[in-house]
Amino acid sequence: MTSTNPHGHQKGRARSTASHLAAVTELLRPLRGSARTELLPLSSALGRGLVEDVTAPVSLPPFANSQMDGYAIRSSDVPDGGTDLRVAAPVPAGAGAATLEAGTAAPIMTGAMIPEGADAVVPIERASPDHFLPAGDAARVKLPAAAPGTYVRVAGSDIAAGEQALAAGTFLGPAQLGLLAALGLPEVTVYQAPAVLLVTTGDEVVEPGRDLPAGKIYDSNGTLLEAAMTQAGLRVLRAGISTDNPEELRTLLRSQGAGADLIVTTGGVSQGAYEVVRQAMADQPVEFLHVAMQPGGPQGIGTFEGTPFLGFPGNPVSCLVSFEMFLRPALSQLLGAPAARLPVRARLGHPLTSPEHKHQVRRGRLRPDGTVQLEGGESSHLMHALAGSNVLVHVPEGVAALGTGDEVEVWML
Amino acid sequence: MTSTNPHGHQKGRARSTASHLAAVTELLRPLRGSARTELLPLSSALGRGLVEDVTAPVSLPPFANSQMDGYAIRSSDVPDGGTDLRVAAPVPAGAGAATLEAGTAAPIMTGAMIPEGADAVVPIERASPDHFLPAGDAARVKLPAAAPGTYVRVAGSDIAAGEQALAAGTFLGPAQLGLLAALGLPEVTVYQAPAVLLVTTGDEVVEPGRDLPAGKIYDSNGTLLEAAMTQAGLRVLRAGISTDNPEELRTLLRSQGAGADLIVTTGGVSQGAYEVVRQAMADQPVEFLHVAMQPGGPQGIGTFEGTPFLGFPGNPVSCLVSFEMFLRPALSQLLGAPAARLPVRARLGHPLTSPEHKHQVRRGRLRPDGTVQLEGGESSHLMHALAGSNVLVHVPEGVAALGTGDEVEVWML
Fold this sequence. Notes:
Two copies of one chain form a homodimer.
Chain A: H1 17-28, E1 37-41, E2 54-55, E3 65-66, E4 70-73, E5 83-87, E6 104-108, E7 120-123, E8 140-143, E9 152-153, E10 164-166, H2 174-182, E11 187-191, E12 195-201, E13 205-206, E14 217-218, H3 221-231, E15 235-242, H4 246-256, E16 262-266, H5 276-280, E17 286-290, E18 293-294, E19 298-304, E20 307-312, H6 316-335, E21 343-348, E22 352-353, E23 359-366, E24 371-374, H7 383-387, E25 391-395, E26 401-402, E27 407-412
Parallel strand pairs in A: 5-6, 12-15, 12-16, 13-14, 16-20, 18-23, 21-24
Antiparallel strand pairs in A: 1-11, 2-10, 3-9, 4-6, 4-7, 5-8, 17-19, 19-20, 21-27, 22-26, 23-24, 23-25, 25-27
Family (chains A, B): Belongs to the MoeA family.
GO molecular function, one term (chains A, B): metal ion binding
Organism (chains A, B): Arthrobacter nitrophenolicus
């Protein structure tokens, strides 16, 4: 048993969550290198971050088109009280339109190009008759007046060619990929998905599905973090469970860490004895420190034989909070992916207390009425309570208590 | 050109969004059949829905354990003013603990089993000395008094064996999978991921990457919906673009629809002429109707040669709104996956108007202060505005106008 220094518990020396996020971001900055980009077809780029600004190569819409099914007219042809016009040949979909002769109305479907000379569209349901007629000399339609521009979508009214369509660092979700497609761009340059080697540590940890001897617990950290990382777009390499033998952990990291951009371990980072991760990293440039956060205070950060390393604490809720507070936002900031959590304001459904010198992260259920109900207590082992939560609830440093109805920031999980 | 009946435009006959969602849910109910479940390892079950209730086979935590690094004591050994105790052998991690002798204190790490006889833990930083000592006859530690139960996590305090851990229909995200792992369950029975055949229609639509002749537009619906469906856990089969020839569309659906659980088309469903999807479905049990919603009013629903079919409108924003309002929630309700959108209250950053007899869905950007800024106007072709949005803003039927600061329901994208 080693004698340990509980310095991390002293509030004066704990690092703020913002400082630790900055340190994690700095550690991972090489993931943003120019050698780490790739050109992907749009269908493979979902969930990635955009490397460079995209300028619109065409305008959207590319040409003035109709917003309704109806008749394209010259607005000056129709006086205030309406008039009869001869029905011209319909505007074909997907083709350039002919010039609209004066005194005629051309049937036009939504999205079709406004003919030369036409400047307004009258919807079919305001026409008489209110259904389309075969074109011909005899066919006439009575239409009300329409101001110039009515139901016309102007070319470039969504975005004009040459304007910035998406900024570097944008997360590519359905709408952003849809915009690239609308602009005619079939491929996009994105950052590579980082590969993470994930290792759970502890003599007390057993794989799910095996027998559970007295004093042991099933490994939930591995499953929890693998899923959270996969959702966030990381490629996860699972190295299984390492015992409390530091040499075994070092051997495992060496044998399986090749190709990993980042190593994440769980457990073995606090001030107790038997801290396997601390021991395995003893000769590496790794710092073990305490972040002013509850749960998830004890953290390790550095490199293991050159590979960026993060040591998360051993309790599942602490693991998830560490991921959400540090790794996920660092990746969002550097690579544009995953999408940053959107902070939402909610009202507390009941009072809470919080350690004044720490940033507390509670779990809760956000209800449709905008109130949040806390699930479980402060304790970081409450997996069932976590599984019943849909938000993380933030109580910033400096706040010791909040009452029912007080506003808090929540992040949707 | 066919003569069409614009009945869908008449508000009295439009279907409510709730009725159409119910119809879509009914259409897709067979996806919930017992033949459509599968047993997956936890690492493959992310994003799926749980078929049956899960009862906890073990308690969590499985045994009383320490919440802190410190000393396990018999609380009755320590009077109010504190006392010296002999340091016993440390409690080993991951093993059953021996009985704690009266008058001794056993070093114990977070998560280790509370020894028989012990009923409280004193954290190391409240001990004197405040670091661990080698055990032995000579070693003594001064400890303050602690009430019974202090820093002890009671067995079953998170969940007791036999209690319901997760309900049927639960979406399996990281926390839910983590809970199953914590309970020792290595596999889980989930609903199969539905396969969707996705077809964009229209003579005017061109694949991104090709030349853009006059009057044509690039297909963004295919990319947009494929990404949205993939995010929602569907398996997407892309059938490319069909022209406005109904026979071509029928041939394509027959040749590529094998194995699809659902066919989704875009375009060709409204009251205009040249409505290819309406024409292709003429002899099929498919209804074309108008939902009281803006955008996305025209909708098709039924079966094509026995396969469930949904016809979305042709504009990209209408497509996404149709997906979010009908297909996504129907799947969430039936299969527990994808996760249902969580409604959030937000305050409008500016006024809006809405057709009083329709449910309007606007796009917007939710800001950290809880206000939402609308992006683009009501028009359904504004792809760039959609790409700048992070929420859908709901203005229910019956509301014609809202002012700055009014509360609206938003769904995060």
